[in-house]
Amino acid sequence: MAFRNLETLESWLAEYRAQGKPLADSARVMVQDGDGGANTGLVAFRLGHAPTGVFIQPATQDAIGWVATMEPREESLVLDVAGLLELSAELAAVSELCAFLEAKSQAHQGIDVA
Asked: Nearest-CA neighbor of 50 among 96, 93, 18, 98?
């Protein structure tokens, strides 16, 4: 689907950053080719308070809804109160970006998001 190509996703991410969203600079579009070279849409989000990669992408090949996948870790993560609060802010930013990409996908497909 055209809305998952690298250029479109980078423009959406630039729009998201221009809105002054917290931690928007932690996200970047990654190249990911699906079957037959199809653009599948993949955004990586770097967490500063957990050694876990987070990837945001459409839920399925034809889905407009987006999901976040967290990579597994080999070691336990121990955080104090401040660290937990900072991590929760990062996860809230991931959620907000995921919702933004979903809304942009819906608008691109002509689906009323009202």
From this structure: 93
User: Model's pTM, two decimal places?
Assistant: 0.84
Gap between the Cα atoms of 41 and 108, Å rounded: 14
The answer to whether the CB of 40 falls within 8 A of the CB of 58 is yes
| Type of residue found at 56 | I
**Tokens (6 digits) for 69:** 């996948």
Q: pLDDT at position 39, please?
A: 60
Task: Report the Cα–Cα distance between both ends of the chain, in Å, rounded.
Answer: 23
How far is 94 from 51, CA to CA, in rounded Å? 15
Beta bridge partners of 44: 28, 55
- pLDDT tens for 26-70 read 999 987 665 555 566 789 999 988 888 899 988 887 788 899 999
